[in-house]
Amino acid sequence: MERVVITGIGLVTPVGVGTLEPWHALLAGESGIGPITRFDAARFRARIAGEVKGWDGSRWIEKKRLKEMDRFIEFALGATSLATTDASLELTEEERPRAGCIIGVGLGGLPALERTKETLLAKGPDKVSPYTIPALISNLAAGQVSIAHHLEGPSYCTTSACSSGAHAIGEASQWIRLGKTDVMIAGGAEATISPVGIAGFEAMFALSRRNDEPRRASRPFDRGRDGFVCGEGAAILVLESLSRATRRGARVYAELTGYGASSDAYHITQPLPQHRGAQRAMRMALDDAKIPPDAVDYVNAHGTSTPVGDLEESRAIAAVFGARAIDKGAEKDAGTRTDSRLWVSSTKSMMGHLLGAAGAVEAAICALAIAKESVPPTINLDDPDPECNLDFVPNTARRRAVRHAMSNSFGFGGTNCALVLSRLGA
Predict the structure, then answer these.
(1) CATH annotation of 258-422
(2) Distance, C-alpha 287 to centroid of its chain
(3) SS3 at position 377
(4) Where do the domains of the chain lie?
(5) Beta strands per DSSP E along 215-334
(6) CA-to-CA distance for 355 and 368, rounded, in angstroms?
């Protein structure tokens, strides 16, 4: 089996665009959440979101081609350009058939669909753009990336709600592990801050209504949490076989060592009690990585800021990781490099919930935590829920040599995904 390493990271997020800019913002505890500007949200109960500020797709895409794509595809192309540049990735013509692309997308081009419906009603079918379908279908994120970068290997989309980006990375790693490809572009993209997107989640009472305090609205594991905040963006990872990365002298952020996936088979939106499906995914990922639970130093939690979801994930993490997760340890060691406890944080507290892109962004954060020996905080954790009895790295980032990190992603329909990332040679 080939080993899989991460050699490039590209991030398009509400806290910044690039590789290190978003990372530094997260370590500083900066929030990217504010009032919705993508449309007039005055009539909505939830009027805040994590938007990508100042986005200009023409930085990475020919202006004449922008009409072919909705915003999520632009994000995917921008993040891919950032990632491949970060990786110094160059492919020969002989290598292109063994280089592929899998990008997870949850909802696809809702804004394009809404605009098309308005055109259809106002002007009739003859005025509908021929680019409508290519602009909104989910697999065109991977399709456009494959075209732009001449990737002739597998190209497709994983759609599993909020696990989409994580599943894409896990599935892409399998192509390399089995020796079928040498390079995979993998991640997630989403841009559904639109009337239908916000109204749909709002109707489910899933969104925070803390409109007067947008930067404090996403508060995972806090007693005052009242729902998640929608976000948008993309994350792309360059995955390579370790043998190829070594041959070309590539810089390695981390190794992708474990992938676990499961289904609750229970309810369309609610997790199993004790989040037993999530437990199975986490244990599967640990088994795949061939490490015991106590080898993991950091978990980037799904941590959406919903009352039920945060509680059940906390219980699941405690069940999988045991005493090391729930033992508060000696006070003098708390939050220090010598602290032996499991550290858990939710970076959704700063970016909101990027839906289909969330798992990819958070996997990238785990890779950076390993490479940079730092763990980003859970901000707005001012009044911890006593039933969520873990160390959530409240409000301030910490330094630690992270050997192994886990990224959790769970979605509607009961889909669960866990990834384990490891320091090379750990």
Answers:
(1) 3.40.47.10
(2) 22
(3) coil
(4) 4-247, 258-422
(5) 233-241, 254-263, 298-300
(6) 21
